[in-house]
Amino acid sequence: MKRHLVSATVLTLAAAVALTGCSASAGDSDSSATTGTDESLSSVLESGTLTVGTEGTYRPFSFHADGSGDLTGYDVEVAKAVADELGVEVKFEETQWDAIFAGLEAGRFDTIANQVSITPEREESYEFSTPYTYSTGVIVVPEDNTDITSFESLAGKTTAQSLTSNWNTLATESGATVQGVEGWAQSVALVEDGRVDATINDKLTYLDYKKQTGAAGLKVAAETEDRSESAFAFVQGGTALADAVSDALATLSEDGTLATISDTYFGADVSK
């Protein structure tokens, strides 16, 4: 394990403790307000374990190999690498998505690694690391299609979309006629069979499909300009741990670890 970050952090914490003691002995009534009350990092270092909340049923991000094997996936492997960089063990707590933020707030785990998108609403309630996943929306068409080259060119075309998804909204706003489906599997099958002109979905979904099947006969015709960003989530005020994880992610990006993990699951680097 990589212990260099822990060594530096422990020294910092030790110095902070010493300063706290001096301040208290001097009778400083404001010492509790000026010393570190954020114990998010120190508690992880002291326990030697980073506890991570994740679904375990969300392929290719967090799932069990062959259905019942070891927990793996892009987010799982990134979390393992981050823990290694911090110099601690990692423990996963598998939790349904609907309960995962409540579990974080209740202290069942230190962070969430489950493709948590950074949104303005979530930023009001949680701390986030720097992103480790970036993605766009893409138009997927047959590889011989030359008519669709942008979202504007979807006007008058037929796309297959889940009617409750934001991709359905984008398709409709682009002027497409939408055929409702239950999800990606149905939509891509309709494209492959030539029954619709295209489908819009997350680029990660397409890359995973391409990695698993080869996506023969398909191509990406266009991408959205806006990108979604996913990161580790922490309780509000847990900035020390969030910053340490961000530092670890920076190192893992620089040394190529994130790119390697990304290529394993997507055949492309989605970490930047």
Keywords:
11 helices; alpha/beta; six-stranded mixed sheet; 272 residues; disordered N terminus; D-Maltodextrin-Binding Protein, domain 2; 13 strands; 2 domains
- Number of separate structural domains: 2
Unreliable segments of 5+ consecutive residues: 1-35
Q: What is the H/E string?
A: HHHEEEHEHEHEEEEHEHEHEEHH
Based on the coordinates given, report the CATH architecture of the largest domain: 3-Layer(aba) Sandwich
pLDDT average, as an integer? 90
User: CATH superfamily name of the largest domain?
Assistant: Periplasmic binding protein-like II
What would the CATH topology of the largest domain be? Answer: D-Maltodextrin-Binding Protein, domain 2
Structural class computed from helices and strand pairing: alpha/beta
Measured distance between first and last alpha carbons: 25 Å
Written description of the protein model:
- It is built from eleven helices and 13 strands.
- Helix 4 (74-86) packs across helix 10 (239-254) and helix 4 runs antiparallel to helix 11 (257-266).
- The strands form four sheets. Strands 1, 4, 5, 6, 7 and 13 form a six-stranded mixed beta sheet that branches. A three-stranded antiparallel beta sheet has the order 11-8-12. It has a two-stranded antiparallel ribbon with strand order 2-3.
- The chain folds into two domains: 4-25 and 39-134 and 229-266, Periplasmic binding protein-like II (D-Maltodextrin-Binding Protein, domain 2), CATH 3.40.190.10; 137-223, Periplasmic binding protein-like II (D-Maltodextrin-Binding Protein, domain 2).
- The protein is an alpha/beta fold and 272 residues long.
- The protein is elongated, with a radius of gyration of 22 Å.
- It has helices at residues 4-25, 31-34, 40-47, 74-86, 97-105, 120-123, 166-173, 184-192, 203-213, 239-254, 257-266, and strands at 49-54, 63-64, 71-72, 89-94, 111-117, 126-128, 133-135, 137-142, 158-162, 177-181, 199-202, 218-223, 228-235.
